[in-house]
Amino acid sequence: MLHQIKHSQKMYRIVNNIFLLVIFMQIYSCAPSVNYIGKKYSPTQNIDIFMDTRDIKKNYEVIGKVDGISGILGSKYEDIQTKIIQTAKKEGALTDSSSIMPVKHTDTIKVENDKVVIPNFKIVVNLSDAAVKKLQSGKESIIASLFFYGNTADEKTLPPDIKKEIGPNGLKLGDFNIEEKDIHQSNEIEVKNISIPKKLYNFIVDKKILLNINVFSGRRAFKDNVLEMEFFDSELNEITSKGNVINLNGRLITESE
């Protein structure tokens, strides 16, 4: 009888431990987690939440990326958001421009005499390993081609010297090529000290400057372009209002074959 009592007590303890373990696993499985990649700053309690970058009305810098991950058994949206906010506070993510790394207010153009000055910005060209190897071994460069243009109200009313600048995309404001010879995995191409004629800008509807960016190999070592690149074709404001940086990724054309 005593043996049977001890055995029962032992079984109770085992069942109890298993029960506690199951409860712990269920709680843990429901708990969300986050993955963060980026810069780290001093922790803060001041957090602003935006669901869309277009809602941000102050200067900001993207310091990293955080992904909210649901638990195995599912997590509430509110729990995931709370976890993301906790991570943002820990990493020092602020949207107050006086507290984050300063970003210059360069999202507006400047009119100087007979020219319109384009704000400085960067084109970051990210290349695949194979593309870097081929360009470096061949001592080949990359070229960023920039084409500024805009829309006019009525082409028929334009003066002859302005009308001759009309093309398939609209009114041509200027085009520029910037070459980078020192090739790496990530290449920063500085776009600076660029201006367009004021007389052309005056005919642009709503004063919205549009920009097309294409990147290709420099054709120094290879007769034809060897790169398959992302491109940009939108309002200039899409770049200058978001940290003055545009990322374009690319690889060799042969990598997609």
Give a quick summary of the entry.
25% of the residues lie in helices and 32% in strands. The chain contains six helices and 14 strands. The strands form four sheets. The chain has a five-stranded antiparallel beta sheet. It has a four-stranded mixed beta sheet with strand order 9-5-14-12.
Helical fraction: 25-40%
CATH class of the largest domain: Mainly Beta
Mean pLDDT: 77
Low-confidence stretches: 1-16, 18-28, 94-106
Residues in β-strands, percent: 25-35%
Distance between the termini: 78 Å
Element order, helices and strands? HEEHEEEHEHEEEEHEEEHE
CATH architecture of the largest domain: Sandwich
Evaluate the radius of gyration.
28 Å
The structure class reads alpha+beta
Would you report the number of β strands?
14
Total helices: the number is 6
What does the model show?
This protein has 6 helices and 14 strands. It has 257 residues and is α+β, with helices and mostly antiparallel strands. The chain has 3 domains: 1-30; 31-103, no CATH class; 110-256, Immunoglobulin-like (Sandwich), CATH 2.60.40. The chain has a 5-stranded antiparallel β-sheet. It has a 4-stranded mixed β-sheet with strand order 9-5-14-12. The chain has a 3-stranded antiparallel β-sheet with strand order 3-4-10. It starts with a helix and ends in a 5-residue tail after the last strand. Residues 1-16, 18-28 and 94-106 have low confidence and may be disordered.
